[in-house]
Amino acid sequence: MNKVFFISDTHFGHKNIIVFEAIKKYRPFQTITEHDNKLIDNWNSVVNEKDTVWHLGDFCFGKTNLAIAGKLNGIKKLVKGNHDIYPTKEYLKYFTEVYGVVEYKRFILSHIPVHPQQFIRYKANIHGHLHDKTLDDPRYINVSCEQINLTPILFDELIHKVI
């Protein structure tokens, strides 16, 4: 059976992501190439070609780094983040679907956490954006790289947090 994974905030090609003091301990790399290669290796070690990966935003910096998606296993779907600034057609070269916000199995998927009133309609919010921070509410599930050991995490593992 094909698996479904989640990840956010890979920041491929973002040279400053490895120097921000607050998240340096999660991304302990000397160069952005080392960072990017580790994320690619981690991704491909758990995701096969038929699995689906929801990337919840901030995929890369620099349009040329979009091509990194071609090195990643799986069927990739993107929920755009605040750093995903290129036209949607550029992302559709590598992602089968691109969204702003989308529902998946009664979960709302977004880059930035949604307003709590959304929980009237949804079980929980799977999101990114906060990197090393979390919200004090189990209905918010942060899948930023810093929260998931720089490796896509299975949907089945996430839902146990709220069910």
Short account of what is shown:
This protein has 163 residues and is α/β, with parallel strands linked by helices. The protein has three helices and nine strands; from the N terminus they run E-H-E-E-H-E-E-E-E-E-E-H.
Question: How would you characterize the overall build of this protein?
Answer:
This protein is α/β, with parallel strands linked by helices and 163 residues long. The protein is built from 3 helices and 9 strands; from the N terminus they run E-H-E-E-H-E-E-E-E-E-E-H. The strands form 2 sheets. The chain has a 5-stranded mixed β-sheet. Strands 5-6-7-8 form a 4-stranded mixed β-sheet, with no helix packed on it. The chain is globular. The chain starts with a strand and ends with a helix. The mean pLDDT is 95.
Largest sheet: 5 strands, mixed
Low-confidence stretches: none
The Cα radius of gyration reads 15 Å
What's the helix-strand series?
EHEEHEEEEEEH
> What structural class do the secondary elements suggest?
alpha/beta
Proper CATH architecture: 4-Layer Sandwich
The level 1 CATH classification is Alpha Beta
Average pLDDT for all residues: 95
Q: What is the count of structural domains?
A: 1
How many helical stretches?
3
> Any idea what the CATH superfamily is called?
Metallo-dependent phosphatases
Proportion of β residues?
15-25%
- What percent of the residues sit in helical stretches (DSSP H or I)? 10-25%
